[in-house]
UniProtKB/TrEMBL annotation, chain A:
Listed Pfam families: ABC_tran
Coiled coil: none
Keyword ATP-binding listed: yes
InterPro entries: AAA+_ATPase, ABC_transporter-like_ATP-bd, ABC_transporter-like_CS, P-loop_NTPase
Residues annotated as domain ABC transporter: 4-229
Name assigned to this protein: ABC-2 type transport system ATP-binding protein
Keyword terms, alphabetized: ATP-binding, Nucleotide-binding, Transport
PROSITE patterns: ABC_TRANSPORTER_1, ABC_TRANSPORTER_2
Tree of life domain: Bacteria
PANTHER family per UniProt: ABC TRANSPORTER, ATP-BINDING PROTEIN
Family to which this protein belongs: Belongs to the ABC transporter superfamily.
GO molecular-function term, one example from the UniProt record: ATP hydrolysis activity
Record keyword Transferase present: no
From TrEMBL, chain B:
Transmembrane portions of the chain: 62-83, 104-133, 145-166, 173-191, 228-249
Protein name from the UniProt record: ABC-2 family transporter
Swiss-Prot/TrEMBL keywords: Membrane, Transmembrane, Transmembrane helix
Lineage top rank: taxon: Bacteria
Biological classification of the source: Bacteria, Bacillati, Actinomycetota, Actinomycetes, Streptosporangiales
Pfam families reported for this sequence: ABC2_membrane_4
């Protein structure tokens, strides 16, 4: 199974460092959400993976090789960078046809992927008459053409209607389920929460978090507990496998346990609780918290 | 592998309908105005010192056609930047030199084929109207005539490739087309009238397109380059521009 490896990947534009020593592995068999505010370096990273931009340091490898050294790139990696980057007077099928010729694939593949993305009825229409959603589908068809083990999608749900968003989500889940490595960028946590198994969060070109989605969820929620005598309670809770943090004013934040379980644990430990409040930090808030220092443009109150 | 890239470039070219229309327009522009100017020249042939019937049937139309062929060459490269297609093209064919070589080969062959059709049609029709105007017409069997007519087709291909090189180097269609028109039209045609005599003569003799068109003459002119030397100069100029395009294309971010 093919993975993408980034090793100290760096890109500078003048004195601005767009991607700053990025090191991580995008594993096969799961959807990896590539998350970060606008301008964080997501697209630049994807372009470097595809050999479109030249890194100033480090490298990006697909199955151990640079993209430009792959003998059959389209059969190994499929990418959707910009759905509008097509020649408008070509028909959808012709767009896939030249790609199939470039990859040495039979023309029947073009028809297969058109069917797969639901564009067969408009296969012979010029691309410039397409809505953004249809263009996204065509871009995905192009990515799938070579039946690649690695897929890159740059903001694929931008401008899609809810039905299209759901379709892409299920498609990506399906592709990962078949054992492919799927890297999908977004600046919206809410979208990733429904799609990704794993998160790579970047800000200002740096890796902020490389974390399983489940861990991120667990980390970002908890129950605020106050008790007259916290010590035996902490012992009891940690003994039952919960994560307990002490916050500034002496309260406890308990992770990995529901409020009801905590209440029963307190009863068993003979400790009276003075507060038991489930905290629903949304994933969006947790993500904002992580990336707050790395926003390129921030609204300032005046 | 290279054959795949070449085939993909041809598919790209032929699936944009305006490309084939433009190519046909270039042939029509060569043959139409070419035939008209040939007839006019035939009518006035007694006043002219030397009457090069082959060259006359080729040159008049080429002035129009070359702008179209060159612009089409520009578009083959620059439209990829305008649409963003270049990134798709480079993910399909990530080796830059291979992609550009495929583009150059494809368009060179297309322009050469269209150029030969245009040149032979222009010559044959031109000779008919020259004869009709009462002037001595040329035949392909005469010395140098076949070389002149086939050479015209080669000049088409070279002009087209200058367009591809400029499109790739400058990336902006408008800028590249303007430079192309300056190089192939304004400087060689208007330049000699504006420049001091010596500089004007140098442009007439050594400017690439002016030199290259010597291949289409059948009457020697001691003041100008010979047919093959002239074509060689245009070919060398084209090769230089292409080399610059390859060098830049290999290192530039897409």
């Amino acid at each position: 199974m093919t993975a993408i490896e980034l090793k100290a990947l760096t890109k500078r534009y003048g004195d601005r460092t767009a991607v700053d020593g990025l090191t991580c592995v995008i594993e096969p068999g799961r959807v990896t959400g590539f998350l970060g505010p606008n301008g964080a370096g997501k697209s630049t990273t994807m372009r470097m993976i595809l050999g479109l931009d030249r890194p100033d340091g480090g490298g990006a490898y697909v199955g151990g090789r640079r993209y430009t050294d792959l003998p059959d790139p389209m059969r190994e990696v499929g990418a959707l960078l910009d759905a509008r980057a097509v020649h408008g007077t070509r028909t959808a099928r012709d767009h896939l046809l030249w790609l199939a010729h470039a990859a040495g694939l039979p023309e029947s593949r073009a028809d297969e992927v058109l069917r797969q993305v639901g564009l067969e009825s408009v296969a012979r229409r010029r691309v410039r008459t397409f809505s953004l959603g249809m263009s996204q589908r065509l871009g995905i068809a192009a990515a799938l053409l070579g039946d690649p083990a690695v897929l890159l999608f740059d903001e694929p749900v931008n401008g899609l209607d809810p039905e299209g968003v759901k379709w892409i989500r299920e498609l990506m889940r399906g592709l990962a389920g078949e054992g492919r490595a799927v890297l999908v960028s977004s600046h919206l946590m809410s979208e990733m929460a429904l799609t990704a198994d794993h998160l790579l969060i970047i800000g200002r070109g740096r890796l902020i978090a490389d974390v399983a989605m489940a861990d991120f969820v667990r980390r970002s929620s908890g129950v605020l507990v106050r008790a007259d005598d916290p010590e035996p309670l902490v012992k009891r809770l940690t003994g039952e496998g919960a994560e307990v943090r002490t916050v500034a004013d002496g309260g406890l934040v308990v992770g990995g346990m529901e409020a009801g379980e905590i209440g029963r644990a307190a009863l068993a430990a003979g400790v009276a609780l003075t507060e038991l409040t489930p905290q629903r930090t949304s994933l969006e808030e947790a993500y904002m918290e992580l990336t707050r220092d790395s926003l390129e443009f921030k609204a300032v109150a005046v | 592998m290279r054959a795949r890239a070449l085939r993909a470039e041809w598919t790209k070219f032929r699936t944009v309908p305006s490309n084939l229309v433009t190519l046909a327009a270039a042939v029509v522009l060569m043959v139409g105005p070419g035939t008209l100017t040939a007839y006019r020249a035939g009518e006035g042939h007694q006043g002219a010192g030397v009457f090069d019937a082959a060259n006359i049937s080729l040159y008049g139309g080429f002035l129009f056609a070359q702008i179209v062929v060159g612009s089409l060459g520009v578009m083959v490269a620059s439209s990829e930047y305008a649409t963003g297609m270049i990134r798709t093209s480079l993910t399909a064919v990530p080796r830059r030199a291979r992609l550009l070589a495929a583009k150059v080969t494809m368009f060179g062959a297309v322009a050469l084929a269209a150029g030969q059709v245009a040149s032979f049609a222009s010559f044959l029709l031109g000779q008919v109207v020259i004869a009709a105007a009462g002037a001595p017409a040329a035949t392909l069997g005469q010395p140098g005539v076949l070389r002149a007519v086939a050479g015209m087709g080669v000049v088409w291909a070279l002009v087209g490739l200058v367009g591809v090189a400029l499109g790739c180097l400058l990336r902006e269609t408008m800028i590249a087309t303007t430079v192309l028109v300056a190089i192939n039209f304004i400087i060689p045609i208007i330049g000699p009238r504006l420049l001091p005599e010596a500089a004007g003569a140098a442009v007439t003799t050594y400017w690439p397109i002016a030199a290259g068109l010597r291949i289409t003459t059948t009457v020697a002119d001691p003041a100008r380059l010979g047919p093959w030397a002239g074509l060689g100069l245009l070919a060398a100029f084209t090769a230089l521009l292409l080399a610059a395009a390859f060098a830049l294309f290999r290192t530039r971010d897409a």
